Amino acid sequence: MAQQYTVHPSGRLACPDCPSDQRTFATVLHLAPMIVALLGAGFIGLPAIVSLVLWKVRNNDSTFLDDHGKETLNFQISMLIYWLVAGVLCTVLIGLALLPVVWLLQLIGGIMACAAASRGEFFRYPMTLRIIA
To answer: What is the pLDDT of residue 6?
Structure first.
């Protein structure tokens, strides 16, 4: 049976009949790389690798999981680029101001995505390059 999608009161597309295991895994898809990044490995690309591995584990199970996996992978690749740019700009001191901004974007974006996934909603991170379509 195909899953039905509706528009949540927040305006986001939602999957109200998604099984709880899919909602939980979608939440983990966003939470795991966020934790890895916030522990200090964001600038070396480890969160993007975690996102890729988790997405590939269950991307064929449903459209809901595939979408969340692509979104978190795109976000983590974008964050890697932002971390690298901020790091390079540290040589001219501008990067020192950008580092906490990138850290906060990663933290707040991850929290918002986890909340949406646990509610069964689709989510789009702000300021994300859509590399994986």
So the answer is: 60
